[in-house]
Write a structure and sequence with these properties.
Blueprint lengths: L9 E7 L7 H12 L3 E7 L6 H11 L3 E4 L13 E2 L1 H6 L4 E5 L2 E5 L2 H9 L3 H4 L4 E4 L3 H14 L4 E5 L2 H11 L8 E5 L3 H5 L3 E4 L29 E4 L8 H9 L2 E3 L1 H17 L5 H14 L5
Parallel strand pairs: 1-2, 1-3, 4-6, 7-8, 7-10, 8-9, 10-11, 11-12
Antiparallel strand pairs: 3-5, 5-6
Helix pairs in contact: 4-6, 4-10, 10-11
Length: about 300
């Protein structure tokens, strides 16, 4: 970093489990260097949810300035927050934490990560059915983003575990938008075929993630992905996931996960620093890192 070694600085980090592969340290440390900000971003791997309260108490005591939160703790950390933004409260999930003199505030910038890349398509998707794969914190954010910025006629949530899907439906039933949430089996490809937007909010498709059927959330040969759809994959490594390759071959419009990665990172960076992340300059650097194969995700 360009600041002298004894300059006061902020420590930021990513809370998750087995997330040494993450590109978040590269993104935030690159942004800090470009803007000459005295901060350092690292990874904090926490092995079990039972350790989260102690970890955050330690952060208060040590004065760690803030965190991003990823799988599987976006919902776990909510109970440890002193206050929540409207977005975090609406989703019941936190992916960004700010420590202000020992008081922890929780935010959800994943909503911006979804709505930002969807902006150019929002008009054409409004009033049409949308489909989301997943039932975790990322899916919660995606549902809220669609309700706020796209306003589809209905949101179909495709899940492998119906019990978890119904729990998510209960968690989101407070919405006043009037946009219904329909829980469907992950293999309901007839319903998926009717969706104008298909969004993958699971890790399926990530490099090294083993699920079978070519590591794609939609098996080939179903005809569920077709021309006229917009297909958005939150997975960002590989940049062109099996789902995006399928969509491109079918003639659908595609949105890669790196768009969400940078949009949510920029919002978090702004919350922590008050500065605008130079995403246009950072994007090609992140792509180079991903394409070099030096990182898994």
């Amino acid at each position: 970093m360009p600041e002298p070694a004894n300059a006061p600085g902020k420590i930021l980090g990513l809370i998750g489990r087995n997330v040494d592969y993450s590109c978040s340290p590269f993104i935030h440390n690159t942004a800090a260097a470009m803007l000459r900000l005295p901060l350092y971003y690292t990874v904090f791997n926490i092995e079990s949810p039972e350790l989260i309260p102690a970890a955050l108490d330690g952060a208060r005591a040590l004065g760690i300035a803030g965190f991003n939160v990823t799988i599987p703790y976006k919902r776990t950390v909510v109970a440890c927050m002193d206050d929540l933004s409207s977005e975090a409260r609406a989703t019941g999930a936190v992916n960004t934490i700010v420590n202000r003199n020992g008081r922890l505030s929780g935010y959800n910038t994943d909503i911006e990560g979804v709505s930002g890349p969807l902006g150019p398509y929002a008009g054409s998707l409004c009033g049409k059915p949308a489909g989301i794969f997943g039932n975790g914190g990322a899916a919660l954010a995606a549902v809220e983003a669609l309700r706020r910025s796209v306003r589809p006629s209905a949101i179909n949530l495709f899940v492998r575990d119906r019990k978890k899907g119904l729990q998510l439906e209960t968690a989101l039933e407070h919405s006043e938008t009037g946009i219904p949430l329909v829980i469907r089996p992950a293999d309901d490809y007839a319903a998926l075929r009717q969706c104008s937007l298909v969004l993958n909010a699971t890790p399926v498709g990530t490099k090294g993630f083993a699920l079978g059927f070519d590591n794609c959330i939609v098996p080939s040969g179903t005809g569920a992905i077709h021309k006229g759809q917009v297909v958005f994959d939150m997975v960002y490594n590989p940049v062109q996931t099996p789902l995006l390759e399928m969509a491109r071959e079918a003639g659908a419009a595609t949105i890669p996960g790196i768009d969400m990665l940078l949009a949510q990172a920029a919002k978090s960076f702004s919350i922590w620093t008050g500065e605008t992340m130079p995403t246009d300059e950072i994007r090609p650097r992140v792509l180079a890192v991903l394409e070099s194969g030096n990182r898994k995700s």
